[in-house]
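Lab notebook, page 48
Experiment: co-folding of the full assembly
Goal: obtain a model of how the components sit together before planning crosslinking
Operator: M.T.
Materials (sequences as entered):
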Amino acid sequence: MEGASDRQDTSVYADIETIRLPFLDDYPLYIGLFSHLKNATFLRKQLLEGNQDFEYALIDATSILSVKHVLAAAFRAINDMLHGRLRSRNVHSEIVYSLGANNNITDAFRHFGILDSTTALLVIKVGRASSDAAVTHDSVSAHLRANVEGQLLPFNDENIVGLSDMAKIRKLYKITSADAAGKGGKKKGARADGATNGVKAALDGGGKGGPLTAQEERVEMEAVILGTMAMKGS
Amino acid sequence: MTSHSLPAPFSNASSAAPALLTQGAEALVYKTVFLSADTPCALKYRPPKTWRHPILDRRLTKQRLLSEARTLTKCRREGVKCPGVLGADWDAGWIALEWIEGYTIRKCLDKFLHGLEAEDIASTNKEAENKDSEEAQKRSELWDLMARVGRAVGRLHEIGVVHGDLTTSNLMLRPPQSLREGAFDAEPGAAPSNDGPEDLSGDVVLIDFGLAIQLVQDEDRAVDLYVLERAFSSTHPTAEPLFKEVLRVYGESYKGAKVVLRRLEEVRMRGRKKSMIG
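Observation: model returned without errors.
Model output:
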């Protein structure tokens, strides 16, 4: 590992992640998480022009809460594709649409899709294990490394948390602290701005009182977000 | 209902088949994983009812599935402890729910009431000092658990939801994360020990919202409590004083709870059904 210790660039070690969702393992997901993105405008242009080589879900990573948030959107999109229920052009745009809190496709792309100003990017490619041998981990990896100007990070909760804009995510899914200000019917109006804390757990006797830790808050937000996404279109 | 095959994609043979846990009148509940191999989930599947007209059947399935999903998500938004919704497909009839690790309150009562006499349970702490400390410990843990049950139900009712099937089997004790690690997490999918928890610490979590309704009145809330009371007294006759503690804490848990408790007395007099029809 000569010279490895003094390298700053973790992308040397990071790789495009291959994830197989349980029950949908015929559709492997190739996922890349990039920080310090420099060519959002170029990537977005390829998307708008319908360049077939850039058939990806291109997501602004600041709108993403966790790994499961992403996987839930992918599951929904692939499952809807298999049932002939896509609301958008293809499974990749459907992943972006699936992230949205309501049925408005334009809103979903504005809130979760890549924008010219995007500097943190999550890229997903849905493969086809059985028939589509052209799309492989290596082909996706090579294409993204050649075309995305940014720093590739391992796709995990720690790195996602480092990029997410919690205030924005709360707003997108209408999660406010006033929604669950605690017990006793006390609606704490002063907290309604949601400035510091998001979802609050009921102050159950068995748990500790007081505000949630950042980690606990993310768990609560994830539950609300996944539920919201699951019921979309009903 | 006899054997049912799960809808796609859960019928996919390349993944481990979900294990059937319970079969109710409306739905089958399986244990499986969702989104990742280390995320256990309860998969609730409402198979088509062949005796119903297909259009009506689809509409009812969708309605009931979505009602459950909406209520659960509302509860999580408001900080009520219950399973989160991980995914759903109302056309196919399934909903994937967060797996709640732990023990039913029924199981906890079974274990902790065992060996305790009715008068032991009711006795105050002062008298308890003469008793051996292990029993005193058990008793105080039980009383504390009852307070948590009262608060959990109170919080649910406060946000305008009634459960509709509030039994001691639909209330879970989820041990603190620190105790769950090792006990369950070492082997995802491993059943918790059959003899119940070692102690009664943890959160009270409500499960099975299949019959839950929103926009409720005090009458509905009172009936919820009445059903729970009957569940207590029928399976744990010695637990009557404990249920009083549930109601006491419930009464203090939100504005309006006292009115519901008064309503409960009326419901007790006449039984669960308000109208004499049906």
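Interpretation: The interface with chain B takes residues 19, 21-26, 67-68, 71-72, 75-76, 79, 82-83, 85, 175, 179-180, 182-185, 199-202, 204-207, 220, 222-224, 226-228, 230-231, 234 of chain A (CB under 8 Å).
Next step: discuss with group before ordering constructs.
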